Structure formats: C-alpha cells, structure tokens
Amino acid sequence: MADQAPPPFEPVVEDWHTALAVVAHPDDMEYGAAAAVARWTSQGKRVVYAMATSGEAGIDSMDPETCRGVREAEQIASAKLVGVEVVDFLGHPDGVVEYGLPLRRDIARAVRRHRPEIVITTNFRETYGGTWPNQADHIAVGRATLDAVRDAGNRWVFRELVDEGLEPWNGVRQLWAAASPDARHAVDTTDFFEAGVASLKAHRAYLEGLGGDMADARGTLETFGAMAGERLGTRYASPFEVIPLG
After folding, report:
1. Rounded mean pLDDT of 203-222?
2. Which domain holds residue 149?
3. Contacting residues for 192 by C-beta, under 8 A, at least 6 apart
4. Which of 74, 78, 233, 246 has its CA 20 to 30 A from that of 198?
C-alpha cells in the first residue's frame, strides 16, 4: 500500500504586530524562515531576533573569538535584509548550550523586554523527520524558549527581572517552531523568496566554511520551500509547528 500524502498545511495567523524569534545560532532563521520574516516586516510588523549563541564554534578554520565577531556582523547584516533592525546576542556558548535556568532567564528577559504576541524558534524535536537527527543546541534553545515564554508571564519566577524594571508579559499567543516535523501550518513566502536567499547568502564566511549541499543557499531554500509550498498550495512556503499558549 502506497504511503498517504501528508495533509495540506493551514495558513498561520497574521493578525499580530510584534514577534520575537529566539534561535540557537546565526543562520538558523535564514534556513527557511527569513523569507517569512520579510513578508511580515513588509506588512508593517515588528520582528526582533535573539541569538542564544554567536555561532563562534561554527567555522572550523576560524578561532572562536575571531569567529564570534564575524558571525555577529553577518547576522546583523542578514537580518536587515528582511527588515529586522534589532538582533540580541545572549552569550551562551556555541555547541554546548545547556537547557536550564540561566538560558530560560535570558529568554524570559527578552520576552518581557520586547513584549511579543508571537514567539518563533526552530525545530526542537529529536529529528527533522525520519532518521535525520536534530542538533543539540536547537533542541535546548527551543525547549527553553517554550518554557521561558511561560516564565515571562509569572511575576514570581525570575523575580530579579522585575527589579530590572521588566514587568511580566502574558501577551504571547502562540509559539511557532520553524522546520518542525510536526508542522501543520505554513506561510506563503513566494513573493519574498529572493529576500530569503539574500539573507542566507549574507552569512558568507559561514557558508564558505560549511561547504557541501547546505552551503548552496538558493538550492537549499528552493528544495525546502517548494516542499512546503506544495502542501500550502503555493510555489514556496515556510512551515511551522504552532503551539497555542492561551
């Protein structure tokens, strides 16, 4: 018996004004979600990026302290290409991010500071579907983001944040995990595909160090974007697992 085709994607809601994207590394948003960000900023929405690390362990031929500055600069330039003006770097160590209270606190701080209605992260499931395993930092940061969104709304969790002048924020309606194997929603990125490609290409040093198929920005985004687009009924799309938060 032939495998059944996956069900069609539903469109994500777009009746919001501010989103915060919390991911592990520079380049994580660019592998598929940056085109969606370009769509949203073109609508007048505000999107802020927060990077748990600076990606300093991401280029084998470059010392981490040198790499840190290069990758931060590339991420800032990349973000601007899709209309994102604020990029925060939380300073956790690349490659060995630990799920725990320090990470949750830093993300909760960002949520309270920026007060988003939507929080975006990347896939935090064990795999990308099938046998393709996820990376440890992605899992730790995604799971911490889910918990930190709830922490941000509780006055009695991380009480020091109130002392910093950051009042609780309960306004997050949904968490969206990009590229999740459990995605059931997507956004049409057809008109913003080129902006997404440019945003990934801005990570020039990283892509040069990466090599292989994933360094082909256009080819990679075309493949994944078309797969999601087929399920949404568009040429290109970005898929998301949508987790309601009240």
Report:
1. 94
2. 10-244
3. 35, 36, 38, 39, 42, 82
4. 233
> What residues does 65 pair with on adjacent strands?
none
The pairing of strands 174-178 and 237-244 is: antiparallel
Assigned domain for 5 exists: no
Sorted by sequence, the CB contacts under 8 Å of residue 30 that are 6+ apart come out as 78, 196, 199, 200, 202, 203
Q: What is the largest CA-CA distance in the chain?
A: 61
- Domain with residue 117: its CATH number is 3.40.50.10320
- Rounded distance, CA 94 to CA 198, Å? 24
Domain-embedded: residue 2: no
* Proportion of the chain above pLDDT 90, given as a percent: 94
**Tokens 């929405």, located at residue:** 45
DSSP string, 88-146: EE--PPTT----SHHHHHHHHHHHHHH--SEEEEE--SSBSSTT-BPPHHHHHHHHHHH
Rounded-to-integer distance, Cα 73 and Cα 96, Å? 22
Q: What global pTM score does this model have?
A: 0.96
User: Is 4 contained in some domain?
Assistant: no
Determine the average pLDDT of the residues in 50-78: 97
The phi and psi torsions of 224 (rounded to 5 degrees) equal -70, -35
Residue 20 lies in a domain: yes
Nearest-10 Cα torsion for 216, 220, 226, 229 = -120
| Listed residue (217, 214, 189) closest to 201, CA to CA | 217
